[in-house]
Design goal:
Strand content: 35-45%
Number of strands: 14
Shape: globular
Structural class: mainly beta
Number of helices: 3
Largest sheet: 11 strands, antiparallel
Amino acid sequence: MKKAFLIIILFGFPTLLNAQAIKFGFFEMNDVLKAKMTLDEIKSSGVPIDSITPVPKIMDMSEADSLVYIGGTYYEYYTNTNICDLNVIRFDNRITKVVFGEMTFTKETTIEDAKAYFPKDCASAEPIPIYNDPISYTYCSIPLADSKGNLVDAALLLFFSEGKLKRIDFWEPS
């Protein structure tokens, strides 16, 4: 399912839903990184990889072979296809900008900005702990739809701390 979701993002057809459908025709991080890339494409992007590590035991549901880290952001890497699927975006000194369609997110994006983009889905952002992370987060979940507007079993999770966007997770049930 995650692969299908990332293929949808890669080809520019996903829709995020709130009161009305918002179609995204584009996804990019730091003006060069895509949601789905080969390891070779990431290496030649000009954005240095910090590490490639085995998938930790806590992620035992993952079918990936390893994680490719750029700062706190990571891709799940599949050696048999040489494909990296974006999983978690952390806004830090390495990843500073994410563009979804005409929406730009940075570490300066506030929860109020998210509520303006997604009035229905972020109206009641809720507190949530993240395992092994000492930061207190508030999050909102943005459902995803395919190019025809049909909901898929996936979402973007926007995590805020002290009112600012800290991370974006691509979520799907295991």
